[in-house]
Amino acid sequence: MIEDSKRDIKSYVLRIGRLSKLQQRAVETLSDQFCIPFNDNIINFEAIFGNKNPVVLEIGFGMGHATVEIAEKNQNKNYIAVEVHTPGVGKVLSEIEKRHLSNLRIIQYDAVQVIKNMIPLKTLEGVHIFFPDPWPKKKHHKRRLLQKDFLKELILLIKKGGYIYIATDWEDYAQQILLVLDGFSELKNPYKDFTDRIEWRPNTSFEKKGLAKNHIIRDIWVELK
Predict the structure, then answer these.
(1) Which one, of 109, 219, 114, lies nearest residue 157 by Cα?
(2) pLDDT digits (tens, 9 = 90+) for 178-207
């Protein structure tokens, strides 16, 4: 398990943000239906979604543009999306209602605690982590989410043949992630290195900002042996 000292280092800053009227209404009226409260109980996916479809976990969805697009285009799969920021949660809730999505649920809590306490072992078909906070200053690198201890916990939740799909526009973070993942004998990288963007991954707002700064987008795909 992730040590207490590691968990105390937050990998995010909780920005309250201003909710639009639409986001506020969505949070107030749709949370009970589409949000899963954080607790210490393992989720029963079949009970939550009403089917046995494969489950994909997304960590840190921001405003959720890619999240809802992927869920809408893949309704034969179920998605659990984790985010701490309320405006993004409100936006995704409103899109769930607008697009009539039955295959997407949200957990508004720290992803480290969610994967430790709520996700069943060896059940996930995949994990999406698109443009995690890079914490660019060297003194803050310890706050980066995608490090050995976190990934060790995450791998335990993925079933054989499942995948982790990561995208970032920060080169040193990409190199760090690739190196850490390469250290897990239970993972294989079919691309050996970085891969081109998988065609079904939509462009995100963070990606567009990175491109505007002439950052190189790095996509990483690994699979559980």
Answers:
(1) 114
(2) 999 999 999 999 999 999 999 999 988 888
Active-site residue set: 133
CATH topology of domain 18-224: Rossmann fold (3.40.50)
Indicate the burial class of 164 (C-beta count within 10 angstroms; 0-12, 13-18, 19 or more).
Answer: buried
Cα–chain-centroid distance for residue 63? Answer: 12
Question: What are the structure tokens assigned to 32, written together?
Answer: 């009970």
- Is 122 within 8 Å of 52 (Cβ atoms)? no
pLDDT in tens, 69-90: 999 999 999 999 999 999 999 9
Beta bridge partners of 96: none
Question: Which residue spans within 60-203 are E strands per DSSP?
Answer: 78-82, 104-107, 124-130, 158-168, 187-188
Name which residue leads in pLDDT, 174 or 17: 174
CA distance 157 to 146: 15
Asked if residues 77 and 55 have their Cβ atoms less than 8 Å apart, the reply is: yes
> Maximum distance among all alpha carbons in the chain?
48
